[in-house]
Known about the structure:
5-stranded mixed beta sheet; 9% helix
Amino acid sequence: MTENEKRKKSKGKEISRGEAGGEENFGNTTTVELSREVFAGSVPAAQRAYFEIVGPHGKGKIVELGTEDIILGRSPECQVRLTPKNVSRNHARVFFRNEEYHIEDLNSTNGVYVNGIKVEKCVLRDNDQIEIGGVKILFNEERTLQKNETSK
């Protein structure tokens, strides 16, 4: 039987292990998201992420990032308050998902720029330069593997 005939014969039915060259087909299932722990196992790592505000009204200020959502804006209720008039009251949100930090524009008037590109939402990487209403912010992320106690 040719390869093309095999494909036609198996079309529409579930193929078990061995019928398709050693591959396993689980039928018409959807993709399942795996956590990093399930996929790669437990890797002892230390992580630190922070913003360094390098632009107007906050030069040199360091803002540590954790796993909680942070709102950046002009409003006194924001976790990171940026005072220039070009900054919207609730300008952007930073959040931590799947071991990565993301930034999202909250329908601001002047937008969010990452490395000079206007974004609606994007993943942040070490040394990304963010601009919000004329305020320049540097995103820093440090990841280090921790030594296992058993590997001494």
